[in-house]
Amino acid sequence: MGRGSQPQRTLRLSGYIQGSTSKAITVPTLVMHGEDDQVVPIDNSARTAVRLLKDGTLKTYPGFSHGMLTVNADVLNRDLLAFVRGAA
């Protein structure tokens, strides 16, 4: 199979940050992930992405699924705005 570890392959497949790209991102970055996401496992995506980022923050959401951006937009938008304002 292709190059890289399983978490890196999962990141590429799910559209998350790749190893070389993560080094280029130097601004604070919020990674949001539903803990009940059955499509993209949190350990192979969000937790790995935050570890690869220079200044990454992981915010997880118990019970939120892969569709959380649509279903839980009110909560996510509030948290995103707080992060941008420096309050997260």
From TrEMBL:
Pfam family, one: Hydrolase_4
Keyword terms of this UniProt record: Hydrolase
SUPFAM superfamilies: alpha/beta-Hydrolases (SSF53474)
Gene Ontology MF terms in the entry: hydrolase activity
Residue stretches making up the Serine aminopeptidase S33 domain: 22-69
Gene3D superfamilies: alpha/beta hydrolase
Protein name, entry field: Alpha/beta hydrolase
Originating species: Sediminicoccus rosea
